[in-house]
Design a protein that fits this description.
This is ABC transporter ATP-binding protein. One of its GO terms (cellular component) is plasma membrane. It is found in: Cell membrane. Helices cover about 70% and strands about 0% of the residues. The protein is mainly alpha-helical. Helix 1 (about 1-30) runs antiparallel to helix 3.
Amino acid sequence: LPRFAAKYGAERMNIMGEIVTAVNDYTRGIRVNRVYGTQSGALASYHGATQRFTNGIIKWVGSVALPASIAIALLQAVSTFAIAYSISYRLSPSAMASVFFFGLAVVSPVLKLGHGLDYVTAGKNAAKNIGKLLKQTPIGCGNVNVGSKTLPLQASKISVINDTTTI
């Protein structure tokens, strides 16, 4: 379904580009079009592009409406957490936490977007990020009793890396 939606999204963008081009050709070259009698060409291009856009939207809605409504119903917040709990209730607390964490990652885009299929892709990306987070090695810890003594804090040779910038 996401591939189907992406295909029609790309097609709609191409048609919208044709519509904008036809309008620009008509308005920018209005004098030239009238001198040579070619204004009907730009207008015909506009009408053809808008007709293809309308037909494409009708076809897309007819093809996607039922599967999208089922997907939206299944991925709502209540369903997601109920499914997550029913799957993970016998797991260890850390495994259950990761399942709920994933459920939250899937539900949050739905709450933000409110509709559409973009949350499926956002959920898949969130799952990858959560997987990377859970694969990181834990930070070691220890017991240090410093009491009430004040200790100085010193730092040297610190590097901060943010994407491609190193400070």
